[in-house]
Each structure stands twice: as structure tokens, then as C-alpha cells.
Design brief:
Blueprint (H helix, E strand, L loop, with lengths): L1 H33 L1 H4 L7 H7 L7 H4 L3 H10 L12 H13 L2
Length: 104
């Protein structure tokens, strides 16, 4: 009985880790295809784009202070010169916002 419970726990933990890794990879791929052109591959836009569009790097304290939910809202609704990102499901928006928060 204890072995069955332990095996179930190990399987559940492995699935949770695999799911989290898949979520992060999806967010990275979405960022690369939808966000990188303006925000840069590591969250630092090129100087011309930053000046023209008013984009702050992810290292900026104001950007660091944003929650993943606030980033997701910006992705969905747009803000300032940034237009909403079209064609993303709610899960994809959450994934890309979570990945964006990992950029320092």
C-alpha cells in the first residue's frame, strides 16, 4: 500500500514538473515569435526602438514591479504605443507573461 501511494506521489510530481517546463518553453517560444522584435531577445530593446516606442528594459524597476497578471493585461489590451497582441489564447498570454517576468 505504501509503495502504491509513494509511486502515485512520484508520478504526480513528475507530471507537475513536466507541465511547468512545457509552460515555460511555450512562453519562451511565444515571446520569441510575438514580442522579441520590439522587446529584444533578453528583454532589452535596441536603443532606437526604445526611444521611438518608449520601451523600457525588463531590468527597469518599474517593469520589475509589474506582476505577471499586469503583464498579461498589457499583452491582451495594449498600453501606450503597444498594440494588443492578437491571436493568443488566455493560456498563451499567461505563458508569455510568466516568461517575460523571468527576463532580468
Amino acid at each position: 500500500m505504501k509503495i502504491a501511494i509513494r509511486s502515485t506521489f512520484v508520478l504526480a510530481a513528475a507530471l507537475a514538473v513536466a507541465s511547468a517546463m512545457s509552460f515555460a518553453q511555450d512562453g519562451a517560444a511565444l515571446y520569441k515569435s510575438k514580442c522579441q522584435a520590439c522587446h529584444g531577445p533578453a528583454g532589452t530593446p535596441n536603443p532606437a526602438m526604445a526611444k521611438m516606442m518608449g520601451i523600457k528594459p525588463t531590468s527597469d524597476p518599474a517593469i520589475q514591479a509589474l506582476t505577471a497578471d499586469q503583464v498579461a493585461t498589457t499583452v491582451k489590451a495594449g498600453k501606450g504605443k503597444m498594440h494588443p497582441v492578437a491571436g493568443l489564447s488566455d493560456a498563451e498570454v499567461k505563458a508569455v507573461a510568466a516568461f517575460f517576468k523571468t527576463l532580468k
